[in-house]
Amino acid sequence: MVRTETRAAYREAILDAATRVFGRLGFQDAKMADIAAEAGVAAGTVYNYFKNKEEVFRSILQRTHELVYQRILVHQQLEDPLERMRASTREAFDFLEEHGALFLLYVSIGGGFDWAQKRIEQALMNENHARYLALSHATLRDAAARGQIRNDLTVEQLAVFLSGLTDATIFSWVRAGCPPGLRTQADPLIDFFLNGARAP
């Protein structure tokens, strides 16, 4: 048990170090030796946990997705689905603002993986997207059942519209260099989704 916990602690420390290295040097220029030096371990130790830097980055990505998902999951206990929607969006934006450098790095290395690696990355992204989409569908379905949102569109259509607004807001923020204030866009986004562009 102690050995298992120690191994897990080493792995987390390596991922923390790699996050700093990738943020400082960029994915392409970072080397496994840089990660080892940052973590304060021998290069061979890093290879005991990860076979290459692509696997390190994929592990960081998966860990990040899990952290975001768990933070959003907390808000699924809210009774009002509209407040659930707001709180989840605020939480996601808050997390992105805290970890903007890592997100910007992920976007910037889109062409940095070979074909086989891209297939692995895409499978991971699809899996995580499906988890978030399931939460969104459940919230929208609940809101529709309560008569809080229109029911002439399917839950799937509404989820696409909400996702489109969210993605556009995030990528606009990234193009601007990840300035402070993304979290303040959550409520206006949800208001626009619920009310459209019609003047009050």
From TrEMBL:
The keyword Zinc-finger is assigned to this record: no
Protein's UniProt name: TetR/AcrR family transcriptional regulator
Organism of provenance: Nannocystis punicea
Gene3D superfamilies attached to this UniProt entry: Homeodomain-like, Tetracycline Repressor, domain 2
Residue span, HTH tetR-type domain: 8-68
Superkingdom to which the source organism belongs: Bacteria
Residue ranges the UniProt entry marks as DNA-binding: 31-50
Pfam families: TetR_N (PF00440)
Signal peptide (residue range): none
Keywords: DNA-binding
